[in-house]
Amino acid sequence: MIGSIVSFGLLFTVPNNNAVAQIPHETHASATEKTSEFQYVQQPLWVKGTVTASILGLIGLEIWWFLLSKPKAKTAQFSDGIQEVTIIVDGGYEPSRVIVNVGQLVRLNFLRHDKSSCLEQVIFPDFHIAQQLNLNQITPIEFTPQKPGQYTFACGMNMFRGVVEVR
Ligand SMILES: [Cu+2]
């Protein structure tokens, strides 16, 4: 949602900058005789800087978008009666989709690298779990899903989300 608003904003600012950039070029030819070179150089530099910033913003947005929209599913590893997956917490959850079997103990090892307080807590509403995650430590969360389905988990503010798919 925020991403689309930002991208719309950038889409509108880039053509505007291009329109601004054209003005000095057009006026330059007729105005070379009377105006100094100083004014000509300074205007395009400012415009170029803005255009470059917009382009860099777009590239950054694209990388961000690509990373977030990419579905990352991982099937839990089963050993000694426990199905286990390590989830890296860094600007979201990696993997953000975990596939497990019904009726078997699940252990999700949350390894938090993200310093922001946003991701310090992980919540599994369906399993009544709200767990603090310590920085650069593994926090195991265990539960046994009794029914197949999609069980979401999220940060304390419900901004970052992941799914446990029970089959
Ligand atoms: Cu949050």
Automatic annotation (TrEMBL):
Give TM regions.
45-68
| Annotated protein name in UniProt | EfeO-type cupredoxin-like domain-containing protein
Provide this UniProt record's keywords sorted from A to Z: Membrane, Transmembrane, Transmembrane helix
Q: Out of the domains of life, which is the source? A: Bacteria
* Annotated ranges, domain EfeO-type cupredoxin-like: 62-164
